[in-house]
From TrEMBL:
It comes from Alkalihalophilus pseudofirmus (Bacillus pseudofirmus). Its cofactor is Zn(2+). This is Small ribosomal subunit biogenesis GTPase RsgA. InterPro entries: G_CP_dom, NA-bd_OB-fold, P-loop_NTPase, Ribosome_biogen_GTPase_RsgA, RsgA_GTPase_dom, RsgA_N. SUPFAM superfamilies: Nucleic acid-binding proteins (SSF50249), P-loop containing nucleoside triphosphate hydrolases (SSF52540). It comes from the Bacteria. It is found in: Cytoplasm. One of its GO terms (molecular function) is GTPase activity.
Length: 298
């Protein structure tokens, strides 16, 4: 018996990697009965007579997992959003951030295609950069020119983020996620599609989940987040996914404060003092309303 990490799942086979290489395995027969589904990223116990004929015997406890894409034990997420084509959406970025925070994954925000912006548009993006950095997030701006060389400062910074980490790449369709991976490791030659001008969005090119060795770490090349709803979240849990709110919500008078109409709310006070951004708070209210409506439906 040996231990290793599942680095790829395809057509009922799991590819387990350890210091001896990669072994093609099937799941144990009783996994289905025990409702265990191995995921890419899982640390597992397995046995294999040879490289192509192994069985996973046990799946160790996970520190986190995502349903779509199905992957576990993620350290961080590179959230790739374009400044233009498609236009930057702080509402969509905050939606992604909430999902990432809820799973205890560290986000790194990458805003691509900033070279397509007019000077006033670039100034606006840099304001967003300052705002998110003030919250504590890493924000890296990249250009299309960056995405032809991995020696630029921006690419060197991204590579330093990846080292020794298990990373998932997420974000809008058509922002250049596959292109970014190809720059970070050109020999990957991942298929990319240009943004569809007819649909105004990118076409999904990735078919399965796989952890790729890049920059001294592992990056998940995945089909991306197909669902960003809040079915699993309770209304009182939402503010803990906004770090600037999480730092003060314990000071609210009422436990379970929703930071809307309750008296002596520390979050509302921080908002008045300018310590919490109005736009972020508005997005919080949008998501809170969505969670409450979802709970009513179910």
């Amino acid at each position: 018996m040996a231990t290793g990490m599942i680095v790829k799942a395809l057509s009922g086979f799991y590819y387990v990697q350890n210091e001896d290489g990669i072994f093609q395995c099937r799941g144990r027969g009783n996994f289905r009965k025990r409702k265990i589904k191995p995921l890419v990223g899982d640390e597992v116990e397995f046995e294999a007579e040879n490289r192509t004929d192994g069985y996973i015997l046990d799946v160790f406890d996970r520190k986190n997992e995502l349903v779509r894409p199905p992957i576990s034990n993620i350290d961080q997420a590179l959230l790739v959003f374009s400044a233009k084509e498609p236009d930057f959406s702080p509402l969509l970025l905050d939606r992604f951030l909430v999902h990432i925070e809820a799973n205890n994954i560290k986000p790194v925000i990458i805003i691509s295609k900033v070279d397509l912006l007019l000077p006033n548009e670039l100034a606006e993006i840099k304001e967003y950069q300052k705002q998110y950095e003030a919250i504590g997030y890493t924000v890296i701006l990249t250009t299309n020119q960056n995405q032809s060389s991995n020696q630029t400062n921006e690419m060197v910074e991204i590579l330093s983020c990846i080292k020794d980490q298990v990373t998932v790449i997420a974000g809008q369709s058509g922002v250049g996620k596959s292109s970014l991976l190809n720059v970070l490791k050109p020999e990957l030659e991942i298929e990319t599609n240009q943004i569809s001008s007819h649909l105004g969005r990118g076409k999904h090119t990735t078919r399965h989940v796989e952890l790729l060795a890049v920059g001294g770490g592992l990056i998940a090349d995945t089909p991306g987040f197909s669902s960003l709803d809040f079915i699993e979240m309770e209304p009182e849990d939402l503010s803990s996914c906004f770090p600037e709110m999480a730092s003060v919500h314990n000071l609210c008078k009422f436990r379970g404060c929703t930071h809307t109409s309750e008296p002596k709310c520390a979050v509302k006070e921080a908002l008045v003092q300018g310590e919490i951004d109005n736009g972020r708070y508005e997005h919080y209210l949008v998501f809170l309303d969505e969670i409450k409506n979802t709970k009513r439906r179910y």
